């Protein structure tokens, strides 16, 4: 494995010209950028505070938290965690995962996009797969999403004028903000009961279903307008199929059992919650492995000939944990999709049970694989440390057994 380190000062710039494999980048507290690759040779160059790199295989990058990232084309998946500087990505051919990052600008993602805890704006031109955003403290702009879109815990304006699949929205509404979403499929939206906003709701099938106390209402066959509270913010939702909107106190879910469409939405939300649990477990694994690596490096820093061997052992352990976390995350995503499909079949939505991109064939489900010892130990450690409950651990183990 090739490894290169570059001493930097505050707010360095990492320019990733091209990578033919996957990229995993995470922030650390050292004033140094470390780049590791599976191949023996790395194409790198440093000019002042800017480090340029071109990778022929997978890359693992550790950089200061305040690093600014500029990436051209990446042929594989990209995972970026705890990078608080600005991030600009041109073309990601695989999936993209963002966690604990600063402002992000993205041109094109061919796979799925998952963003958790973004401190700044998130601007996306095109995502061909599913997209999920949770915890955004800034403006959201999505020009095109090829499949489903899940939004939760937003703190700013949100525009998504061209989502081909379904939209699930669950968020508080910042006073004076504007939320404008348009889906080719259905929309299910939920906001707190004390929200103040002016609503415009349109759908292609029947009349929008509203579970909220509105004033100044007007309705037609396919549109409902009205005001929540004192107004001020703006919520405009347009669905090609059904639309359900609710303003509820946290934890009040009982009324959602009255209508099939709402139950289907809850099935989707359950899957999203499960995926969020797996994402958190993966983050915990990453933090634990980072602390372990730091302790090992500190203890062995003066041992000389053992340093290289210890570094290789630490790196192997880190890769094993990352593989386990990735399997857990992907299992959760499959469970979310299965939950949506089961809910759709229950209420006659068989035409959306399986969706393909570009008219291609449906990808078959993977055959069952046993839970690995690494995955089992990761989950048990999370329970022992109080990060997840026993029930959540049992659900996760069961899901991994039925992959």
Structural summary, described in words:
It is a single chain. It contains four helices and 27 strands. By secondary structure, the protein is of the alpha/beta class. Among the domains are: 174-252, no CATH class; 276-357 and 368-401, no CATH class. Strands 5-6-2-8-10-12-14-16-18-20-26-22-25-24 form a 14-stranded mixed β-sheet, with no helix packed on it. Strand 5 (43-47) and strand 6 form a beta hairpin. Helix 1 (260-299) runs antiparallel to helix 2 (306-346) and helix 3 (373-384) packs antiparallel against helix 4. The longest helix is centred in the last third of the chain and has 41 residues, at 306-346. It is globular. Mean pLDDT is 78; it is low at 253-276, 299-307 and 346-368.
In short:
The chain has helices spanning 260-299, 306-346, 373-384, 390-401; strands at residues 2-7, 13-19, 23-28, 32-37, 43-47, 50-55, 59-64, 68-74, 78-81, 87-92, 96-101, 104-109, 113-118, 122-127, 131-136, 140-142, 149-154, 158-163, 167-170, 178-183, 187-192, 197-203, 209-211, 215-219, 223-228, 233-239, 243-248. With 403 residues, it is an alpha/beta fold.
Number of helices: 4
Overall pLDDT metric: 78
Largest beta sheet, briefly? 14 strands, mixed
Relative strand content:
35-45%
DSSP E strands, number:
27
**Cα distance, first to last residue?**
32 Å
Strand order of the largest sheet: 5-6-2-8-10-12-14-16-18-20-26-22-25-24
Radius of gyration: 23 Å
User: By helix and strand content, what is the structural category?
Assistant: alpha/beta
The percentage helix is 25-40%
Spans of at least 5 consecutive residues with low confidence = 253-276, 299-307, 346-368
Global shape:
globular
């Amino acid at each position: 494995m090739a490894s290169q380190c570059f001493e930097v000062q505050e707010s360095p710039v990492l320019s990733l010209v091209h990578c033919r494999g996957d990229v995993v980048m995470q922030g650390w507290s050292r004033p140094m950028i470390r780049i590791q690759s599976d191949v023996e040779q790395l194409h790198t160059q440093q000019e002042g505070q800017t480090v340029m790199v071109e990778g022929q295989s997978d890359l693992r990058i550790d950089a200061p938290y305040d690093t600014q990232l500029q990436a051209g084309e990446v042929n594989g998946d990209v995972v970026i965690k705890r990078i608080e500087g600005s991030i600009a990505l041109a073309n990601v051919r695989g999936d993209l995962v963002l966690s604990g990052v600063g402002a992000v600008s993205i041109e094109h993602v061919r796979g799925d996009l998952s963003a958790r805890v973004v401190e700044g704006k998130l601007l996306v031109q095109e995502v061909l797969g599913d997209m999920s955003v949770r915890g955004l403290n800034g403006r959201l702009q999505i020009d095109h999403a090829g499949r489903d879109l899940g939004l939760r815990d937003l703190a700013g304006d949100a525009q998504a004028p061209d989502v081909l699949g379904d939209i699930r929205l669950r968020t508080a509404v910042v006073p004076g903000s504007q939320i404008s979403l348009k889906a080719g499929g259905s929309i299910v939206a939920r906001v707190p009961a004390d929200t103040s906003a002016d609503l415009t709701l349109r759908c292609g099938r029947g009349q929008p279903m509203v579970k909220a106390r509105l004033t100044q209402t007007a309705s037609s066959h396919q549109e409902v307008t009205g005001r929540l509270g004192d107004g001020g913010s703006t919520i405009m939702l347009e669905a090609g199929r059904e639309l359900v909107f609710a303003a509820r106190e946290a934890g009040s879910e009982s009324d959602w059992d009255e209508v099939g469409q709402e139950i289907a939405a809850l099935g989707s939300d359950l899957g999203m919650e499960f995926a969020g649990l797996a994402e958190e477990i993966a983050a915990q694994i990453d933090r634990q492995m980072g602390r372990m690596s730091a302790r090992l490096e500190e203890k062995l820093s003066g041992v000389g000939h053992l340093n290289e061997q210890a570094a290789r052992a630490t790196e192997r352990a880190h890769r094993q944990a990352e593989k386990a976390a990735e399997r857990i995350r992907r299992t959760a995503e499959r469970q979310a999709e299965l939950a949506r499909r089961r809910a759709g079949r229950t209420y006659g939505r068989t035409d959306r049970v399986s969706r393909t991109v570009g008219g291609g064939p449906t990808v078959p489900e993977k055959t069952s694989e046993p839970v690995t010892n690494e995955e089992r130990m990761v989950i048990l450690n999370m329970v022992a440390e109080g990060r997840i409950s026993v029930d959540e651990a049992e659900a996760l183990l069961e899901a991994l057994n039925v992959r």
